[in-house]
Predict the structure.
Amino acid sequence: MIIAFPPAADPAPHALVVLVGPGGAMSSGAAAADTASDGQVARAIAAARFDGEAAALVEILAPTGVNATRLIVAGSGPGQSADAAMFEKLGGAIVARLQTSGETRVTVDLTGFAGSLPAEGAAAHLAHGAELRNWRFDKYHTTMKPKQKPTLTNFDVIGVPGAESYHAQLAAIAAGVMRTRALVAEPANIIYPESFVAEAQDLRDLGIELTVLGEPEMKALGMGALLGVSQGSVRPARLMAMRWNGTGNADAKPVVFVGKGVTFDTGGISLKPPAGMEDMKWDMGGAGAVVGAMHALAARKSKSHVVGVVGLVENMPDGNAQRPGDVVTSMNGQTIEVINTDAEGRLVLCDAIWWAQEQYEPEVVIDLATLTGAIIISLGHEYGGMFVNDDGLAAQLEKAGKTSGEHLWRMPLGDAYDKLIDSPIADIKNVGPREGGSITAAQFIKRFVKPGVKWAHLDIAGMVWAAKAGNLYDKGATGFGVRLLDRFIAENHEG
Ligand code: BES
Ligand code: MN
Ligand code: ZN
């Protein structure tokens, strides 16, 4: 979809969107359309019981007196609530309504808009919401009927000159989000550790430095925990680091993101039940988010130093797979009793996090992982679970969650939970009791965080895949984490 900010509506056929607030408060574009159509706007909103609610839409097909194939009256909400999030939601709602409607072009009239953010911001965020909501994963459909196919090709916002440069920053972020979604949506016969790395190669074109470790290197480094997960798969594991330094200072300490990249999680010998197992193709959602965030930061030339590290493995049952009860040794020398081979994410993360700390000496480490089903029981699909060892970092992440709309809820950590993963025969075991399963998973990772490092673990199992469409995504891969991490860096680690 092509996004543009032309001075006036294109004469080509288009749907026209005009804004109306509560109490029938018409924007100048809405008032003009109402006059031209001899009061059709006022009559339609009365008939629809529309009161300008944010992102509510009333559609008038083939309006009279207006050069548009359809006229859409869009609610802008109460004046104070017309913020960036409202405009994104509105852009998303417009696209959701028109994407397969037969319309090819939509023109949103923001003439005379005055709200809590500058008009260019309103226009840019409107377009950003539209762009995010427009993404679909259709590549494997070969027999779609014409009426099911997207028709929308152009999204124009008129009445706001000069929104292009503001929008360019958001377009960089959208590109990152869409990249993440594409990785997450691909099935596991297409995306596996080697092909994941291959897909990331073009990050170099954005100025990102890539480092890839294969199994011999990881073996030499002693990554027995990560390699133990991978050993039942014919697909070899990879560890990939993506470094972006936009500070102009080679010595700047980086922020490190670490992503769980289990490209398919069968559970291993502790095999998962068949129902829903196909979902485990998105068990690399943490790694996908890290790739998308790196893309976004580099594409908008963020003045920050950030390294993204992803641990990529496939968890399969096989004659060579690890067994429940096996003891493996992680890179930092801790021994781990593998009670349940389905608690594999923490085994991948502990070596990836340790390696990242040794390699980059970060002050801040944030890991993202579809780590536990238990976090979905706790928080559903509204918040990612956040486990943090530093209150300042917790506050920063919570705020980035609010500004990005990708919300986090803080969960507890503590010694009483930590005790639950002591093993009778090794330093640590990879599962605790069923109760508090997300917390003991976080405690496991915490044992691999170096003293003095500020660390957050984000359990995003409930967030990377959606059973139904949201404001800014269709059902399927959401791209969760990219906007959150981008905001976190923008608000705390730039300049
Ligand atoms: N990848 C799963 C967690 C998961 C479950 C993500 C559902 C998304 C949706 C993880 O590797 C896993 O299997 N966790 C186990 C841990 C248990 C064995 C302690 C779980 O949550 O059941
Ligand atoms: Mn698992
Ligand atoms: Zn998993």
Q: What stands out?
A: The chain has a mean pLDDT of 97. The CA atoms of residues 390 and 454 lie 6 Å apart. The pocket of zinc ion (ligand 3) is lined by residues 262, 265, 283, 344-345 (CB under 6 Å). The first strand starts at residue 2 and ends at 4.
